[in-house]
Amino acid sequence: MKRQYRKGLNIPMILACVLFCLTLFSIHFMGGLYAKYTAHTSASDEARVAKFDISESGAYFSEELLIEGTPGSVEREIVVNNNSEVAVAYIVTIKNTTKNIPYKFSVNGSTATLNECSVTCYLEPNSENNIIKIAAIWDEKDALNYMGMVDLVKLTISAQQVD
């Protein structure tokens, strides 16, 4: 008698196929869930560097002011040009560094202050001939006490871009 082999179901292979199919279906359905929360966007921007060019000229405080022998008021003018493509703020500061003579300083008619004055001015783009008037004043009171004294006065103009 011959023995007959009956081919049976290969259970591990059937389970593997079923699991593989379930995995494919779950990936397909889960992909739809995550797709709701993704988005595509694009943007662009441009920047341009503006020209920044400030120049100044005029009669600065010099030795003539430093050894001014008589009390009273000394005035000087400085011309500031903004050759830039942007608005500029510049700060004019005048300071008596040695403080031998009690100078009071004023910039553009501001209130005179003792030994130091600082004023902020503005210039539009491509503006020219903005005149800064600087005054140094000292009283006649006790003028003899200051005879022969010399002071060192420092004038600073610093500019920065506004926009």
CATH topology of the domain at 54-161: Immunoglobulin-like
The ordered H/E elements are HEHEEEEEEE
Q: How many helix segments?
A: 2
Residues in β-strands, percent: 35-45%
CATH class group of the domain at 54-161: Mainly Beta
Rg from Cα: 41 Å
Low-confidence stretches: none
Structural class: alpha+beta
Which CATH architecture of the domain at 54-161 is right? Sandwich
Oligomer: single chain
Count the E strands: 8
Largest sheet properties? 5 strands, antiparallel
Helix content: 10-25%
- Mean pLDDT across the residues is 77
Distance between the termini: 105 Å
Read across the widest sheet, the strand sequence of neighbours is 1-2-7-4-5
Shape: rod-shaped
Summarize the structure in words:
The strands form two sheets. A five-stranded antiparallel sheet has the order 1-2-7-4-5, with no helix packed on it. Strands 6-3-8 form a three-stranded antiparallel sheet, with no helix packed on it. The mean pLDDT is 77. It has 163 residues and is an alpha+beta fold. It contains two helices and eight strands. The chain is rod-shaped. β4 (104-107) and β5 (113-114) form a beta hairpin. The longest helix is centred in the first third of the chain and has 25 residues, at 11-35. It has helices at 11-35, 63-66, and strands spanning 54-58, 72-82, 88-96, 104-107, 113-114, 116-123, 127-138, 153-161. The chain has a domain at 54-161: Immunoglobulin-like (Sandwich), CATH 2.60.40. Helices cover 18% and strands 37% of the residues.
